[in-house]
Design brief:
Blueprint lengths: L1 H17 L23 H28 L18 H6 L1 H10 L18
Length: about 120
């Protein structure tokens, strides 16, 4: 009995020395799943950047679809349609990507939509 207790104590001390016990229960996610806050490390910053890029692509796609499939006014009321707006912080951060998307990928936006009156939307 005494032999098993010594063996267990030696095993515990060995694990403590190499760091296998008392590890924190740390999530592998780069954000907190309860508060949705990004961790302040490289993985958290990369995930935040990818999420922001996804938002920009989403808004560009919405603008493209709206410009290609709708006319410049509401057919029922005759009012001018409102454009899909890019948040200011994203538009300033990704301005080069947005301009490149309009020119290189043939994304039709409000400023170059053929079915809209130019000058009224920007």
């Amino acid at each position: 009995m005494e032999y098993l207790a010594k063996k267990q104590q030696a095993r515990h001390e060995y694990k403590v020395n190499i760091g296998q016990t008392n590890k924190r229960n740390h999530s592998g996610l780069p954000y907190n799943p309860l508060t949705h806050a990004y961790h302040d490390d490289e993985k958290g910053r990369n995930l935040m950047l990818k999420d922001e890029q996804r938002k920009v692509r989403h808004i560009l796609r919405s603008t493209n679809l709206d410009a290609r499939q709708n006319c410049g006014y509401n057919l029922i009321t005759g009012e001018t349609r409102k454009e899909v707006e890019m948040p200011k912080d994203l538009s300033s951060k990704f301005s080069g990507y947005i301009q490149g998307a309009y020119t290189n990928q043939d994304i039709k936006g409000y400023q170059n939509a053929g079915n809209r009156q130019k000058g009224n939307f920007f």
